[in-house]
Design goal:
CATH topology of the domain at 3-192 and 228-254 and 311-329: Rossmann fold
Number of helices: 13
Mean pLDDT: 95
CATH class of the domain at 3-192 and 228-254 and 311-329: Alpha Beta
Strand order of the largest sheet: 3-2-1-4-5-6-11
CATH architecture of the domain at 3-192 and 228-254 and 311-329: 3-Layer(aba) Sandwich
Order of helices and strands: EHEEHEHHEHEEHEEEHEEHHEHHHH
Oligomer: single chain
Strand content: 15-25%
Bound molecules: nicotinamide-adenine-dinucleotide, thymidine-5'-diphosphate
CATH superfamily of the domain at 3-192 and 228-254 and 311-329: NAD(P)-binding Rossmann-like Domain
Structural class: alpha/beta
Low-confidence stretches: 356-366
Largest sheet: 7 strands, parallel
Distance between the termini: 51 Å
């Protein structure tokens, strides 16, 4: 039985991971530590909040004393670190929070873990600090470059990816210098339930339903490698079970898409939903799809993101071969499930969209 501290467990990937883990390992204990920033939503954990083996703590990963207390009081043996500032556009206009949470916050967690697990009278055998990182630390690829492997040199280009790269280096150093049992996973772009609608895929789905423009940065030919979020949780699970201490593991689905093609694909899927389900016409009467008009006409090319990385692509051969990892979801099934989730959970995204981020997006790009 594991006792896990999950940081950022009220965010998009963290919440999906918590649901995945609670469902699969029902006798494990889970403590979520989350500061509930604009991106954290306690409603993401609503269905499990009363379970005996689940505890939610509202707090900041930069509070080292709090983290030490949680590690001791809950006899935590496994820390899975998701908490971060995660939106590249926000990192461009306001990098401070990224430096604070992603670098200083990770450093604070490492210090707490070292103190509680290594520096006492006895070392806690079998402890694990798993750090959730991103493929963006490797920089950008040309259309013909080979995909990122774990040996690709770090070359982060945005304040977000630079702050994640810095945290990856600290995690590595705590293993090599102090013997902390660490693993790191570098995953490609995720999509799925609970994805905050400032990111491309949920933004496009919700804007189509509200008959709002679909902003495409630059020429729309930038490429991302998309993975269904539950497959990310599954990959981290395998790293926790069988990953080698001190190693990095790439997680990805071999699923590269140009942004413009993703947007067109989602437009067609939503249009088809309106054909299949007449109730949607009543719920979203202003949507183009409600009056059988072409949704793609909402596509609007806007100014490019500064320093926009052209292409990300993950080579996950190490994880596939060493840990027997294969994503369970194809893009067809994953994106269909995701569109369905947003259609079935309007209250969730409406409440999230009432927040201040909407004004911020408007100021930046409209
Ligand atoms: P998110 O922005 O949806 O969620 C981040 C969570 O962290 C929120 O719940 C927020 O409240 C919490 N948080 C932020 N600052 C905190 C602090 N100081 N103390 C405690 N909690 C804090 O992010 P996400 O998309 O779920 O990403 C989770 C992790 O996965 C991040 O480390 C990110 O770098 C990494 N990652 C994300 C993607 C992706 O496509 N979204 C891909 C690869 C890796
Ligand atoms: P995003 O979801 O922000 O993830 P990341 O920047 O971490 O890859 O963006 C995915 C891609 O979509 C990225 O190339 C930027 C682009 N994009 C748009 O073209 N328009 C948008 O409104 C957003 C949010 C993103």
């Amino acid at each position: 039985m594991k006792k896990l501290l999950i940081t950022g467990g009220a965010g998009f990937i963290g919440a999906n991971f918590v649901h995945y883990w609670m469902n699969k390992y029902q006798s494990d204990k889970i403590v979520v530590l989350d500061a509930l920033t604009y991106a954290g939503n306690i409603a993401n954990l609503d269905s499990i909040k009363d379970e005996d083996n689940f505890t939610f703590i509202h707090g900041d990963i930069c509070d080292q004393a709090l983290v030490e207390k949680l590690l001791v009081e809950h006899s935590i043996d496994t820390l899975v670190h998701f908490a971060a500032e995660s939106h590249v556009d926000r990192s461009i206009t306001g990098p401070d929070a990224f430096i604070e949470t992603n670098i200083m916050g990770t450093y604070s967690l490492l210090k707490a873990a070292k103190k509680v697990w290594l520096d006492g009278d006895t070392v806690l055998e079998g402890h694990r600090f798993h750090h959730v990182s991103t493929d963006e630390v490797y920089g950008t690829l040309s259309p013909t470059d080979p995909a990122f492997t774990e040996d690709t040199a770090y070359a982060p280009n945005s304040p977000y990816s630079a702050s994640k790269a810095a945290s990856d280096h600290l995690v590595r150093a705590y293993h090599h210098t102090y013997g902390l049992n660490v693993t790191t996973s570098n995953c490609s772009n995720n999509y799925g339930p609970f994805h905050f609608p400032e990111k491309l895929i949920p933004l496009v789905i919700t804007n189509i339903l509200h008959d709002k423009s679909l902003p495409i940065y630059g020429d729309g030919q930038q490429i991302r490698d998309w993975l269904y979020v539950e497959d990310h949780a599954y990959g981290i699970d395998l790293v926790l079970q069988n990953g080698r201490i001190g190693e990095n593991y790439n997680i990805g689905g071999n699923n590269e898409w140009a942004n413009i093609n993703i947007v067109k694909t989602i437009s067609k899927l939503v249009e088809q939903e309106f054909v299949n389900n007449s109730e949607l016409v009543a719920r979203f009467p202003t949507a183009k799809a409600a009056i059988a008009q072409n949704t793609e006409s909402l596509i609007t090319y806007v100014k490019d993101r500064p320093g926009h990385d052209r292409r990300y692509a993950i080579d996950a051969a190490k994880t596939n071969n060493e840990l027997d990892y294969t994503p369970k979801e194809s893009f067809d099934t994953g994106i269909a499930k995701t569109v369905q989730w947003y259609l079935n959970n309007e209250i969730w995204w409406q409440s999230v969209m009432n927040g201040s981020y909407q004004n911020w997006i408007t100021e930046q790009y409209e």
